[in-house]
Request: fold
Amino acid sequence: MLEVSEVKKTFGPNIAVDGVSFVARPGEILGLLGPNGAGKSTTIAMIAGLLQPDSGRVFLEGTAICGDNDLNKLKLGLVPQELAVYDELSANYNLYLFGALYLLKGARLKQSIRDSLQLVGLGDRARDKVATFSGGMKRRLNIAAALLHDPQALLLDEPTVGVDPQSRNAIFENLQALKKRGKTIVYTTHYMEEAERLCDRIVIIDHGKVIANDSLPGLYRRLPLTHKLVVELEPGAGTLPLEALSAFPEVESSQLRDSTLTVVLKDLSTGAPRVLRWLTENRCRYQNLTTERPDLESVFLGLTGRSLRDT
Amino acid sequence: MNVPAFSALVRKDLRLFFGDQRALLLSFAAPIAVASFFGFLFGGQSGKTEASPIDIRVVDEDGSETSKQIVDSLALDKAIAMKPASKADARETVAKGKAVVAVLIPRGFGDAAAKAFFSTGQKPQVELLYDPSHSAELAMIRGILTEHVMQAVSKDVFSPTGGRRNLQHWLASVDQDETLNPEDKGALRDMLKSVDRWFAQTENKSEMRGVGGLKMPYDVKEEPVTAGGQIKYNGYAHSFGGMGIQFMLFMAIDAGIAVLTQRARGFWKRYRAAPLSKSTLLAARALSTGLIAFLILVAGFAFARIVFGVRITGSFVGFLGICVASSLMASSFGLMIAALGKTPEATRGLAIFATLIMVMLGGAWVPAFLFPSWLQKLTLFIPTRWAVDGLDAMTWRGLGVADAVGPMAALVAFALLFSGLAVARFRWDG
Reply:
């Protein structure tokens, strides 16, 4: 289990992280989200031991990580956002180097290299220079380098930046496999659909503080309980008396653009049948209908605002 | 210290360096090529510089026996390459830089020079047209010309024919001089007539024909002085030392820039996430850079030993000590660049400029003894000066290990200074 407790970090007059706390459990993927400059990277850097918090502690399996040489770091694997692998060296030699940093040697190191490369699907490219790899392969090797020492917790800082859908899918499968093995995974990303697909729980940080820490359903519940009903009408449906529709108590608002009717409902269960009945009563036929519920992006933008963050 | 990690980091750096053909070419082939050229200029294996003769033009407007003799003797002088020319051609040739100096011997020079030899009257003028970018050669030509003119004019003055012609001139001068009293005039006339009679008696004697003029009244014996009697100076020893130091510093710049690049590419995040101390990371980088620097220096000297016969005529232990201390200095210089630099692009230009200044003032290009004395004192604050002087002392000067201690101590002090700055200013974040 990874526990971040009240960590704080300032750079001069700027408070980068202001008392952040959360817990990531074994077999759980925790998504760490936030706008640019929110404090995600500084938090990750403090968890990984790259930065010393001004106050607060990071506990791994109940033990605090103290100092550069702390062997507790062996329980942690870091996948940096950058492709931190040497193009000029083979995949094997890259992993040999990074394994040696974590005190691996001899047969155990060789086996770890084989296992890691197999896991990320690069077993047959072990001897090839990394310069010959595609961007997706380099990303997978970047992940393999953090898995060599079989860490209990894995920190991934935007590990899918610039990869094609196939490689992204392969990375997701790798992470799901690691989750099944009981690994604790902390995953930062700007892609909301990735977080929705992968993460069991989401921590949203803004201005250095945790502003949400919940499961996905829990986060969805934070938005007002509204649903959209989108109805594609048959061509030539003519004009509809939308004022009458909006007057229904189940309906929040309605809008007709071209031949698409969008109705925001207060309650889907009672509102949707009422709207469909009203369409029938008005002799209006429809081709397709869909409902939309609030998504993570809506929650994220609702919590962090829509103003641009360029820092 | 995490020894397996330390060892893996050092081996990784060596592997990256030796796998990079551009780095190998720049670090090993380039210094050998440049040092070979400089060594040749500094006198090669014999230690004697075969300077090219200085191109001059001579315009003989006089056409006298004396001026012809001057031209003939200039033509035989090995220090110059003389060609006769017209006045217009000579001026144009110098203006175009094809000749360094043009010597113009004016009409009536031979006669006037002989008359001016013992008198205080007006002297004839020899005109020197020179290329202003070769002022050092002008001074040499002035000296060479003096020797040949004195020889030719004195030969004319002291020969029977020329002597009698001049005596007639001086007798007439005595007669016309109204400041002399009659007694002195008589005495002078008697003396000059006696000399004229002697010239008349010897004029037809064969042994007096072609009598020589004034000559240099001494010969020069030259002896190169080094610590041992059998030690011969080898110009390549200095050039390989100097260029070795220069290119090991260039390699150290690359090593420092690589740290900046690796930081930008996230490698240092990965290293620092591992259970490694900061000192282990820096020490691994310093050792790998130092090892490569040592190899660059030693490989250069090995080449110079095989091809140009450069020998460690002083203490071999002292030579190795200077090499090790220079390598430490270079590796700490690389670390300092990594610590002080911000972006690789901006850092590279500045670091190369600083290195070129250091090697220039350190005497790696031309020996420091050619500098003005104030600059020689100032350059003692530059590490390359100690490295170059130390290598010179152990190679061609043939000095003992005691003379290596000072340069080694200075180089280690610079290494500690650079390392201290590197540790203090190294940015561990990012």
Observations:
- Chain A has two domains: 2-220, 227-293.
- The first strand of chain A starts at residue 2 and ends at 11.
